[in-house]
Amino acid sequence: MIRSLILMMTIAAMTMMTLPAGAATLSGKVTGVSGASVVYVEAIAGKTFPAPEQEPIMAQRGLMFQPHILPVQQGSTVEFLNSDSVAHNVFWPSVGGNKKLAHNLGTWPQNEKRTFKFEAAGAVPLLCNVHPEMTGYIIVVPTPYFALTNESGEYKIDNVPDGAYKVVAWHEGGKQQSKAISIAGAGQADFTLSK
Ligand SMILES: [Cu+2]
User: Fold this and answer.
1) How far apart are CA 17 and CA 23, in angstroms?
2) Separation of 173 CA from ligand 1 center, angstroms?
3) 58 C-alpha to center of ligand 1: Å?
4) Cα 94 to averaged position of ligand 1 atoms, centre (Å)
5) What pLDDT digit, counting tens, does each position of 28-68 carry?
6) From the CB of residue 18, how many other CB atoms can be counted at a distance below 10 Å?
7) 109-147 pLDDT, tens per residue?
8) C-alpha 87 – ligand 1 centre gap (Å)
9) Interval between CA 77 and ligand 1 midpoint (Å)
10) Pick from 176, 155, 148, 180: which is nearest to 167 by CA?
11) 131 C-alpha vs ligand 1 centroid, how far in Å?
12) 161 C-alpha vs ligand 1 centroid, how far in Å?
């Protein structure tokens, strides 16, 4: 009995040592819409995050943008890789609804790629002027704390700092929603989006 108690305490102590101090897991569910959403932590006062070195890839493959929805941290450079045998164009009419940030990356053939560094946060609706049926989204978020939900709307974000801040849910067919939360160790934020 005592031995098993000591063992349990040892395991608990070892588990605590491997976790970063003051980090929490945020989880929840987005409902009211069907398919994947993006959930992310809004800018945190007094905290800045260096742009990640890793370059996420938004491919054009099978006459589609793949993945359909790509969340990236603000400041990320995204690679647009054409994997099809036909030429594709990539442009976006706005970033976060701001039409001044519209941009046309051009048109390029198979196995070539172009890159773009997304400095402004917001949803970037991707289009191709060769194939009007092609749509995709890059969601540029201000923190490294984000997740793409599964098809049921469930998400989990690990290593979120303890504290109070806003969490946002985005869905391509719904109105974006933000929620103020206070979290320590573990927290939950559920959203019901309206169309
Ligand atoms: Cu195309």
Assistant:
1) 12
2) 22
3) 13
4) 18
5) 999 999 999 999 999 988 889 998 999 999 999 999 999 99
6) 6
7) 999 999 999 999 999 999 999 999 999 999 999 999 999
8) 7
9) 21
10) 180
11) 4
12) 40
Percentage of the chain modeled with pLDDT above 90: 84
> 63 CA to middle of ligand 1, Å?
6
Cα radius of gyration (the chain): 20
Alpha helix ranges (H) inside the chain: 2-18
CA distance 51 to 172: 25
Q: Specify the 3-state DSSP secondary structure of 2.
A: helix
N-to-C CA span, the chain? 57
Alpha-carbon separation of residue 122 from 39, 49, 78, 94, 100 (angstroms): 12, 16, 14, 9, 13
Q: What are phi and psi of 74, to 5 degrees?
A: -55, 135
